[in-house]
Amino acid sequence: DAGVTQSPTHLIKTRGQQVTLRCSPKSGHDTVSWYQQALGQGPQFIFQYYEEEERQRGNFPDRFSGHQFPNYSSELNVNALLLGDSALYLCASSLFGTGGRSGNTIYFGEGSWLTVV
Amino acid sequence: GDSVTQMEGPVTLSEEAFLTINCTYTATGYPSLFWYVQYPGEGLQLLLKATKADDKGSNKGFEATYRKETTSFHLEKGSVQVSDSAVYFCALSRTPASKLTFGTGTRLQVTL
Questions:
Q1: Which residues lie closer than 8 Å to A44 by C-beta, 6 or more apart?
Q2: How remote is the C-alpha of B6 from its chain's centroid?
Q3: What backbone torsions phi and psi does residue A40 show, to the nearest 5 degrees?
Q4: Dihedral sign from CA coordinates of A113, B10, B37, A42
Q5: DSSP A25
Q6: Residue ranges in chain A modelled with pLDDT below 70
Q7: SS3 for B112?
Q8: Are the CB atoms for A64 and A21 separated by under 8 Å?
Q9: How far A64 CA sits from the closest chain B CA (Å)?
Q10: Which residue of B has its CA nearest to A10?
Q11: Would you state the pLDDT for residue A18?
Q12: pLDDT at residue B95, as a whole number
């Protein structure tokens, strides 16, 4: 049973460019959330997708956008990259409505390391 | 809004020492509480969780008890090993949204 998979694992972009990160959730999960983890900090919630719609959004600008596909996989897009966007981007998958209760768990991928130069 | 406060690190211990990492939270209602661990160069792994007051989560010798009266969820282990060296994150979530609010993390370094 594959867990949460993310790609690419590492990438370097230049300020002003655009980036797309990809995530495949754990088998059986239908909800994908994205987090940004700056160096030395805890992960910060970006947004969550369920049924191909953005359900919740954290305090991130519109430069951050996403998409969920019918197979539940997801993309995170960041436009007009800034140096401050350099971080580890984590994808988490879960079953909608469980939030960790009822024995279900939120699973994280290993992340995509983005460096903006 | 919701928030999680963890003790500052790094925490440096000798092998077999007792570990406590403090975590307190601010949230209305009854959130679920979690401890996640992040080993160097890796993503987050769930270590343990508790979903209601007075619940004790445990895993791999680690324990934490959900204390509603003190809004705390302190992580403890009786005897740490070098392999426990990692960053530990306390987090909370509300159902059904599953959004996690994390603390800033506490780095644990265990030496021989």
A1: A35, A36, A37, A38, A58, A59, A60, B102
A2: 8
A3: 80, 10
A4: negative
A5: P
A6: 1, 97-104
A7: coil
A8: no
A9: 17
A10: B41
A11: 98
A12: 66
Say if CB B45 and CB A108 are below 8 A apart. Answer: yes
Output the pLDDT for position A1: 60
B28: DSSP letter: S
pLDDT for the residue B30: 86
Query: Which structure tokens are listed for A29?
Result: 């999960």
Distances from the Cα of A23 to the Cα of A33, A71, B77, angstroms: 10, 11, 34
Task: Provide, as residue numbers in chain A, all residues whose Cβ is less than 8 Å from the Cβ of B4.
Answer: 42
pLDDT for A106? 85
Contact B104, B21 (CB under 8 A): no
The answer, for A103 touching chain B at a CB cutoff of 8 Å, is no
Asked if the Cβ–Cβ distance from B95 to A101 is below 8 Å, we say: yes
Structure tokens at A14: 């230049």
